Amino acid sequence: MSxxxxxxxxxxxxxxxxERKSRVLTxxxxxxxxxxxxxxxxxxxxxxxxxxxxxxxPEAPGPDEVQLYFSLPERLxxxxxxxxxxxxxxxxxxxxxxxxxxxxxDILETTYRAMRVLLEREIGFSFLTKGWxxxxxxxxxxxxxDLVISRIGLVSMSDRYRDLFEPQAAxxxxxLQNIERLKAAGIGVEVRIDPIIPFWTDDEASIKELxxxxxxxxxxxxxxxxxxxxxxILGQLQKELPPKExxxxxxxxxxxxxxVIGTSARSKLIPLPLRExxxxxxxxxxxxxxxxxxxxxxxxxxxxxxxxxxxxxxxTTRKPLGKKERQLTLFPC
Length: 333
Known about the structure:
Layout: E1 2-6, E2 12-18, E3 26-27, E4 37-39, E5 42-43, E6 65-69, H1 72-81, E7 91-94, H2 105-120, E8 124-129, H3 135-142, E9 148-153, H4 159-165, H5 172-184, E10 188-196, H6 204-215, E11 221-226, E12 228-229, H7 231-240, H8 243-251, E13 259-260, E14 266-269, H9 272-286, E15 292-295
Parallel strand pairs: 2-6, 4-7, 7-8, 8-9, 9-10, 10-11, 11-15
Antiparallel strand pairs: 1-2, 3-4, 5-6, 12-14, 13-14
Helix pairs in contact: 1-2, 6-9
């Protein structure tokens, strides 16, 4: 089924409902998420961030089109409850290639039902979003605060940055309000400053403005990563950014070779000296705001970096599930 509607920012989009044929739960094979179970509610994303690598996938839908796995909650419940399941699953990462909180009501309803499936089974999850989180999600999370870690993507306080690079995502104010509402409900909140755009969002004034807004809302940890290029991203930037902005970004990569980073496609990194100076600014300025920055190791293989996916369950955050673990069968699903 196909539906043509406008999102909450007035942009037209087409939603296509799909029945997912393959498993809903899959293990990530890249970077900090390696071997984590992941779930994607949609293929494609209405936010249309110009730097989004997922838009370059061969199977990605066309512009202004999003494909929704409408039966995902039922499929997810069936996989989790299957007596043939071989592994214990107690943590899941949502939407590694889209966003859980796109504005279409059908997407939000499917996301809500999928998250409720997990919480009803005392399975925790994390998500990263640049969208607006409706109140009913906050209410749902507040009943299970130890099982939810929220990650808000926010790179800059500049509305112009958002308009150019994240044109359909939530506004800066909306994302800051997400942080306030989540923290008020007792939900853990982390902020991902990614992708940092050289000469756009890494100057001292921009960093101080962002850190000040986050510190005022009680954020104590952020993860950092500079923009990296894949061939498809390069084409998106050229097509969707003004010529001046595109040329400035391109100049940062012209001397860099295409390399394979982890299991990803060919990529180009910002030159190491430029990244080192930028990260040093973020690290030095953080001390005055009580914020701990983590440099993502996924996109910085040549630096001493961290596992940026702090939004994954660790031994220190594990809670007793309050029920007996059932014995798992030797047969595959």
